[in-house]
Amino acid sequence: MIKSPYQFQFARLQYQSGDWDTDQRMPVNILHSIVEYTAIPIDQEEQIVPLDSKNIYRFPFVYISGHKLVEFNDEEAEHFKNYVENGGFVFADDCNHDIDGLFAKSFEQQMEKLFGPESLNKIPNNHDLYSSFFEYEDGPPTSSFELNGWGDDLVHDYLKAIEINGRIGVLYSNKDYGCEWDYDFRNKRFMAKDNTQFAMNIITYSLTA
Questions:
Q1: Rounded to 5 degrees, what are φ and ψ at 34?
Q2: Average pLDDT per run of 10 along the chain, which is 209 residues long?
Q3: How far is the C-alpha of 155 from the C-alpha of 24, rounded, in Å?
Q4: All structural domains of the chain
Q5: CA dihedral sign of residues 58, 113, 70, 94
Q6: pLDDT at 188
Q7: Which whole-number Å values give the CA distances from 25 to 70, 117, 142, 179, 197, in the listed order?
Q8: What is the DSSP letter of 69?
Q9: What's the Cα-to-Cα distance from 30 to each of 47, 59, 81, 137, 150, rounded to whole Å?
Q10: Bridge partners of residue 93, in order along the sequence
Q11: Which residues make Cβ contacts (< 8 Å) with residue 104, sequence separation at least 6?
């Protein structure tokens, strides 16, 4: 897959089952952080990409999320699998932050169906992802939802991934980063630390690995 050096586009996957249009302020917040921390040119508008459309192949990075059922139809499944196996990067984030929730169970079942049993595995906390931009020596940063005991009342000290030829093709989180970053970017000035910094690691890894 050709990765354009000219402009990063935040592309969200639209799928027919479930609720795909979550955390609606998050993309603009992340795009603002890319401008703040990197020299990567951006498209200022979020791109909505139907998974049953071949337009998915235009984007090196795509995001998928939700709370409800994930059940791809045949065309969606074919595009998702081909996209990942040909160098695309999917960041999948569970808005329920719950390993027993409907999104988590159904998404993991879809990954097993497409890529085989045990294809989705925990990644070690010394993975290149955690040093691709900022340094995270202890693995993925904890979200406020985990600390507040929402969802499954657990702090997940890992992320999962499907790797293709030694690189992550699907990065999977139960930490609900999408909702964690779902606020007006102008409110970051009130934070002790910008919690979108980890998104820079995900994006730079997706573009360079």
A1: -60, -45
A2: 65 95 95 95 96 96 96 97 97 89 95 96 96 96 78 84 97 94 90 93 95
A3: 24
A4: 11-208 (3.40.50.12140)
A5: negative
A6: 85
A7: 22, 35, 20, 9, 16
A8: -
A9: 13, 16, 26, 22, 23
A10: 65, 173
A11: 94, 96, 98, 174
